[in-house]
Prior knowledge:
Layout: H1 3-11, H2 24-58, H3 62-75, E1 98-104, E2 107-112, E3 124-131, E4 141-144, E5 154-155
Antiparallel strand pairs: 1-2, 2-3, 3-4, 3-5
Amino acid sequence: MNLRCAWALRLRGGRVAACGGFTLIEMMVVVAVIAILLMMAMPNMQDKIVRDQIVEAVKLANIAKAPIAASWSTARILPADNAAAGLPAPDKIVSNLVSAVSVDAGAIHIVFGNQVNAAIRGKTLTLRPAVVEDAPIVPVTWVCAHAPVPDKMTAQGADRTDVPARFLPFNCH
């Protein structure tokens, strides 16, 4: 016997009363509250999934970072394109989440495709090299999308990022 039934029996002087579970209205209220909470959580979960895919896809740009940084530290120039960086054609640098990686004036442009979420398919994320122009020994720092450039450094290349800001990882803001 649950507490609700025991309380009802004491109030009615020990007479047996019909003690059931929850009423239909109580159950509907619980279901409605759960549905509202899920509706509030779903967009945040989807945004997190897309952000995680972007973070995973950006790792592919590491193959282009090393030759670009080496070119800057040795000759103080940035590669004009993939060939100048010693990389294959943009459409040959692919993964499950990336359809192309191209170099343009030192900037790395990652085009999302293949099995990526539809919200960013065909969108581009740019990583720009930030350098200290009169001190090539200082390592190249990579500026993601619209992130601010570190003090006393200059970002090279154009930012062609068209990924919606809500999907960008926190280091790209």
